[in-house]
Design brief:
This protein has 615 residues and is α+β, with helices and mostly antiparallel strands. An 8-stranded mixed beta sheet has the order 5-4-3-6-2-1-7-8. The protein binds adenosine-5'-diphosphate (ADP) and magnesium ion (MG).
Length: 615
């Protein structure tokens, strides 16, 4: 038999390696930024076109490369950062594998320009699919510029696999932020399609965080600091009152490298124990310095996970340090655990049109004793006809309620509500009760239905928003005085990306600047005081949901708005509000699940109740 094993040609091997190193444009950005930092740059510019799909260019003022190195850097396992295996245990650089440039050059058109400080002239090299196509002597500034064009041009499957520009830009901005947060001593510039997104001047940690997340961040930050024999901890946590519903702003850095660690995250959460509402996450920016030989960063190809020698000690010290800071900055004592939970709702429930507060009308002829008999009268049991589904049962409910049907046609509930009430007084079904400020119990012909008030309201609002957004003629209210809301520039970029979707929801944007948006009109269902909150929540949601089509954009938007605006657990509802909620829920197309798929109600038929007691 003839031999069949052969060595893969370099360009094939490189392409395979690229599969691991380069998942998306953001991976290229990360590698190039890290190379610039390793080269000692003090100023780094990142230029992007079309979310990096057309161009990713990183320009630095670092030490540059010699002619030979400029050619060699594209070879696999070509690195200046380690010489032998023992160096792996004492890493002071970001890179060490010598794989990044070889991988990138295998799957893109790359142009490198570089010059060392003491040289007169520099080198320009063009390389495509691992083949050098051009080499020139050029005059260029000190440092290195690497332009990566048409990523995945020779791997269509990978190129097609890329997500929308909004999503890919988001990934790039995440990487950029991680690097920029780790290196406040370096100035960074980020341009996307010619627009400046970040211009971060050389500064300190606090200013860098504020530079990235916006001026509002400054007041939220509580410093964290500790020094022990095995480590230094520096950084900030955000005050508990600014905790996020999603874990967006959580950053750990070890020796200037961004890392993910659910273990250390647990330590921080633990320090916040009792200070946060359930379901919210603290924001933090925590920097560890440890001796390089006590960590192993070699365990994950994309190098965001690290193994520590002293993990347990680290956990304990981190937890104590954060706790101490929260106490010292008297963040903890000001919290009042006995306050009314409804006060936590950051916007005014009364503003919501879906569940409007009934007017109080005083009846001078009111006689409590006379009325009591009618109120407490035991409901007559209706014929226990077995029903297969709640929906069909509900049709009967609708008949009983008389003018119920009209609810389906008209979305203006307030008018309908009145009619509904009159007609319902006669019927024995449809009585509602609130349980523990969380659930509603409503009687129906065949038994009772138990409703989760917040999830049900989310469903109602979700359908309302979705209709508004997709029908494309959402009602917008013009603001008398346009409002100016400031956002971090990366968020502005995101808002611009979904501008047209927001417009179809009823938003009117008058102006975008680098740090703020001027809003001239808002959807009628939202009040002015809620806008900033709603948009922040939406951005958080978009960052995490990664929508793929424009429809799912709408979906994320409607879900996010619904979640922000829905009444919360702990909100006391008047009878009228309860009934409106029940009515509106069952006018929904899909009343039985919340927008995120949780059940909104459960029916308990008389038969089921009977069996409970017949055992
Ligand atoms: P690694 O960073 O793991 O060494 P890379 O493929 O990213 O591998 O880079 C290969 C080599 O090219 C680096 O070790 C470095 O010597 C050189 N290099 C890459 N980018 C730059 C840059 N911006 N400035 C100077 N040298 C660079
Ligand atoms: Mg590198």
């Amino acid at each position: 038999m003839s031999d069949i094993i052969q060595l893969l040609p370099d360009h094939v091997a490189n392409q395979i390696a690229a599969g691991e190193v380069v998942q998306r444009p953001a991976s290229v950005v990360k590698e190039l930024l890290e190379n610039s930092i390793d080269a000692g740059a003090t100023s780094i510019t990142l230029l992007l076109k079309d979310a990096g799909k057309t161009l990713i260019q990183v320009i630095d003022n670092g030490k540059g490369m010699s002619v030979t190195d400029a050619r060699l850097c594209f070879e696999r396992h070509a690195t200046s950062k380690i010489k032998d295996a023992k160096d792996l245990f004492n890493l002071n650089t970001k890179g060490f594998r010598g794989e990044a440039l070889a991988s990138i050059a295998a799957i893109a058109h790359v142009e490198l320009k570089t010059k060392q400080e003491n040289e007169e002239l520099g080198t320009c090299i063009k390389i495509e699919g691992s083949t050098i196509t051009d080499q020139d002597v050029i005059s260029t500034a000190k440092g290195t510029s690497i332009a990566v064009k048409n990523l995945f041009y020779n791997i269509p499957a990978r190129r097609n696999f890329l997500k929308s520009d909004t999503v890919e830009t988001r990934h790039i901005i995440d990487e950029f932020q991680r690097v920029a947060l780790a290196h406040p001593e370096i100035s960074f510039l980020l341009h996307h399609n010619g627009n400046e997104i970040y211009h971060l001047k050389e500064s300190n940690f606090r200013k860098r965080i504020v530079g990235i997340f916006g001026a509002k961040m400054n007041e939220k930050l509580v410093p964290v600091e500790e020094q022990t024999d095995i480590m230094v901890i520096k950084g900030f946590v955000a005050k508990p009152s600014y905790a996020k519903k999603k874990r967006g702003e959580q950053f750990f850095f070890v020796n200037d490298r961004f890392i993910k660690s659910s273990y250390l995250n647990h330590a921080v959460n633990n320090a916040f124990d009792g200070l946060l509402e359930s379901g919210s996450h603290p924001s933090y920016f925590i920097y560890f310095e440890v001796p390089p030989n006590t960590i192993d960063i070699n365990i994950h190809p994309t190098k965001t996970e690290v193994k520590f020698d002293n993990e347990k000690a680290l956990y304990a010290i981190l937890r104590a340090t954060v706790k101490h800071s929260l106490g010292q900055y008297s963040v903890a004592p000001v919290l009042d655990f006995n306050r009314d939970a409804t006060l936590d709702t950051p916007y005014d429930f009364k503003d919501k049109p879906a569940v409007s507060t009934p007017k109080i009308i005083v009846d001078p002829t009111f006689n409590p004793f006379k009325n009591e008999t009618t109120q407490v009268s035991t409901p007559k049991t209706s014929s226990p006809t077995p029903k297969t589904s709640f929906k069909s049962d509900y049709k009967d409910y609708k008949k009983d309620a008389g003018s119920w049907e009209s609810l389906y046609v008209n979305t203006h509930q307030e008018v309908q509500q009145e009619q509904l009430f009159e007609s319902k007084q006669e019927t024995e079904t449809g009585k509602t009760f609130q349980i523990q400020k969380k659930y509603l119990l409503s009687t129906i012909k065949s038994g009772v239905v138990l409703i989760h008030q917040s999830l049900a309201h989310q469903r109602i609002l979700y359908e309302e928003f979705l209709t508004n957004i997709t029908v494309k003629d959402a009602n917008s209210q013009q603001l008398l005085f346009p409002i100016n809301i400031s956002f971090p520039s990366s968020d502005i970029e995101m808002i611009q990306g979904i501008k047209s979707d927001l417009e179809s929801a009823g938003f009117v944007f008058n102006e975008f600047t680098n740090e703020s948006v001027v809003i001239g009109g808002i959807p009628t269902s939202i009040s002015e005081s809620q806008i900033s909150l709603i948009l922040e929540q939406l951005l958080d949601d978009l960052k995490l949901e990664v929508p793929e089509t424009s429809f799912s954009h709408y979906d994320v938007m409607a879900k996010s708005f619904a979640k922000s605006l829905a009444i919360k657990t702990g909100t006391v509802l008047s009878i009228k509000e309860q009934e409106t909620l029940v009515n509106n829920l069952f006018s929904c197309k899909e009343p039985n699940v919340s927008p995120i798929g949780k059940p909104t109600f459960k029916t308990l038929t008389l038969q089921e109740i009977d069996t409970i007691f017949s055992k």
